[in-house]
Backbone:
DNA sequence: TTGAAAGCGTTACCAC
DNA sequence: GTGGTAACGCTTTCAA
């Protein structure tokens, strides 16, 4: 390596060693454990490193150490605001802890998810599986290969961090009940979605307690157009409030209702879930259940790192609270006799 | 390595070699260039590999090869739908080409961006810089260290892929003009935003050609609430159509208009830009200028890979077209005498 | 405190 | 076709 040419593939520890008149070992120590080297020597080395634009090669270090300083992150769909926020939080947290993040988007494809997990397994220290859609068996296999943490899916034996929407949804049903609604439509999400099932349960249970009638629709792909589709069915069923699996579907509902001239919240109330950007910017703004997505991501990283430090640790499940955020899209139920 | 224990840190090529009664070299060849090894031998090796759950260690391979099979991707903010779509496209394209993606979110912080780029430089084959905010000097430095492609920023000497919004905005103005609008409000974005200036120019120019009056507002932080704020001003100025810097601001406009009982598009037409998820899911759906974000991401990867294959290639700038997408939020101008 | 040398798992070159 | 060997850049004993 030519000193005057600090470009691609640039200086190695050996170059720096030569430049500082020390051995490569010492250079390594200067970066790994600076206090094991005499201050004067360290200065010399650091100067040479600076001059040569030296940065330790993480690849080589990984090979020597057996650790990569990298976390794998697998999400179903980054373009989904829900996951985007989690990704961002994970990214930020990991970086604070000096970890890089390998990102993989499965496009909601369970098979790809499994393959990706297996591939990533070998090149990361830990794997963060966000809302994994793969079967429990496969998940188990992945977990056996690499330290993993599941986000937003609870599986026995797998450390996970979830945000049960029970609290928020219970609040939502209570809110609607208080407004006089006695019949609500429940719009389910994807077929294999753990969170959809869980949300369904929560609504059903809360409604039963309050003697509110529930008509269910779905499971459906949690998309805008399926929301729109369900709006008509919900209306036909006579529901005065619609609780959607997520904000996106709620927006679909809103859109279709507007097309039909049905007023929100005067004629029908609509509730979303997740409190994504979509909910705040909708017209009317969506009443929704807020999931602390950033906290989800952060806790997942923390759990992972904790686990890496202490591999003997038993699997742990972290649960965060959700809460109802009331906005314009919900209002008093229309009077029957009106 | 115990044969019966194919778990973490599992079998190496040497283990497989032992199991198959061949040398490590042969094992390597079986995966790198299978046709250079006799079918029978290959079968033996593959069987042993299967049995041991062997997968080549990418880290070690990277070190030996000097290539990582990884692309670095740096974005200002993943939670921004605009960037999220690009990330997704890059991810998908890279994976098709057997590249993994290292993701870094800078949180719009130019200094972090620079540091991250330098760090990533050593562990990826190429760097994709999306809308980089760092200074030209630093950008140059990064580019000298690692093959890079800039997305949505055009810099001399740096290969890049950009999508000027001129076309789409010209179409937007023509569209409004054809509908009878003769006075439009132009809502600018951030003060130092290259794209805001560029978009402003495009609208002004097109409007001048068609003798459409333009009243400008801003520059403003490109947020929802600033859009809402401007709506009243635009109305007061007598504009019948509002062209916003991006979809988010357009939604702000929509929201405020709804609050005031102003109908869209009957009383006022609204146009956004970027065609993010927000535009499609708005009520009414937003007429907007589509930037082909996925194509932007894909082309960036292609450009990168092309460059890696042929390092002698001169920097190239790929420009993609933007186009107007007409949706419900625009309609005929209200008649003056009505 | 510092240096020499072995090793991490793979690939590539050169013999056989 | 296949095996031996060096090399990738770093960390880490073990001696000095």
Residues:
């Amino acid at each position: 390596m030519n000193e005057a040419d600090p470009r691609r593939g640039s200086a190695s520890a050996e170059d720096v060693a030569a430049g500082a008149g020390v051995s490569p070992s010492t250079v390594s120590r200067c970066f790994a454990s600076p206090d094991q080297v005499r201050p004067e020597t360290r200065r010399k080395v650091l100067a040479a490193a600076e001059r040569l634009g030296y940065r330790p090669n993480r690849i080589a270090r990984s090979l020597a150490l057996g650790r990569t300083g990298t976390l794998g992150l697998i999400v179903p769909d980054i373009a989904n605001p829900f996951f985007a926020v989690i990704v961002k939080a994970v990214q930020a947290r990991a970086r604070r802890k000096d970890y890089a993040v390998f990102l993989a988007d499965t496009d909601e494809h369970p098979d790809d998810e499994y393959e990706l997990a297996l591939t990533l397994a070998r090149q990361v220290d830990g794997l963060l599986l966000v809302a994994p859609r793969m079967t429990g068996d496969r998940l188990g296999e992945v977990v056996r290969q690499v330290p993993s943490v599941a986000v937003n899916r609870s599986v026995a034996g797998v450390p996970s961090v979830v945000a049960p929407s029970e609290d928020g949804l219970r609040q939502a049903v209570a809110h609607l009940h208080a407004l006089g609604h006695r019949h609500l439509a429940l719009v389910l999400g994807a077929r294999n979605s753990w969170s959809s099932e869980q949300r369904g349960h929560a609504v059903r249970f809360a409604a039963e307690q309050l003697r509110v009638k529930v008509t269910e629709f779905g499971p459906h792909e949690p998309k805008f157009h399926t929301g729109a589709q369900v709006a008509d069915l919900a209306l036909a069923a006579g529901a005065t409030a619609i609780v959607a699996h997520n904000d996106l579907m709620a927006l679909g509902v809103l859109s279709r209702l507007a097309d039909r001239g049905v007023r929100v919240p005067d004629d029908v109330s609509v509730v979303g879930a997740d409190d994504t950007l979509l909910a705040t910017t909708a017209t009317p703004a969506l009443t929704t259940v807020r999931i602390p997505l950033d906290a989800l991501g952060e806790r997942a990283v923390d759990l992972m790192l904790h686990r890496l430090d202490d591999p003997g640790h038993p699997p742990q499940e972290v649960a965060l609270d959700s809460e109802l955020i009331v906005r314009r899209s919900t209002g008093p139920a229309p009077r029957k006799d009106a």
User: Anything to note?
Assistant: Chain B has a mean pLDDT of 91.
